[in-house]
Amino acid sequence: MVLTGCQVGANPIIWSNDDFAELAGDLPLDTILRDMAASGYAGSELGHAYPRTTDALGAALGRHGLRLVSGWHSTHLASRALAREEADFLAHARLLRSLGAQVVIVAECTRCIHGDREAPLGFGDRLSPRLTEEEWPRLLTGLSRLCELASGEGLTVVYHHHMGTVIQGEADLERLLAGVLKLRLLLDPGHLAFAGLDPVAVARRHAARIGHVHLKSVRPAVADHVRREGWSFHRAVVNGVFTIPGDGCVDFPALFAVLAGVRYQGWLVAEAEEDPAKAPALDKARRARAYVRAQAGV
Hints:
The chain is of the alpha/beta class.
């Protein structure tokens, strides 16, 4: 399998967690970028330690020969004024564009709970949080507007379905994609598998709309504990629910075949938030990079 035209990047959450500061949240940026480059990655997504000006961010990445891949942007389209959302989004998008990124990652974070250390995750008919019927039109209209703004900046919006947010289950993901046709999908098989979806089935169904790919997997035994015992996202993460490609339950060769079938040429971004004290980041990053090289030919 060779994914011609793809590049392989990493998310700094492998080294330093954005939501939970005790998980190496104080690790210096240059340490993250040095290890990332040494592991064979060509680019990086943004993390909490990264500067947010073109000059400072470009200099930091340039010291290690890395490119800017993209960066997460939290939207609150269902609960905040659209004018405020547009302004925040454009500032983020223009930073990405200034350093050569081609996609901007968004996730709706109205009433999100993934940063709450105690709130139990929901599954199946117990999904929480969810949008109300009154909020759905606000989200769909707002995302359509952000897609237009991004296009004007030469960028594509990719949506990140994520555990603990309003778009995590299958019905809500399908409704979102059907409601905003200009929106592309950020395929994250780790979050799909954790939510109880089949990542390969989702990839096949929406192959033509995949605009960005995160590479992480799930340890089924840990996920089972989360579902049975009502764990929070924090407890799931520190107990190792996520892992790197080549480990866990996700069928990455099948996913790479789907991507090859539609001639996907975007970034493949390795990530897996875990406790770095339990799963040392550099070793994990190197193993993930070797796996992608062996299985995807890049």
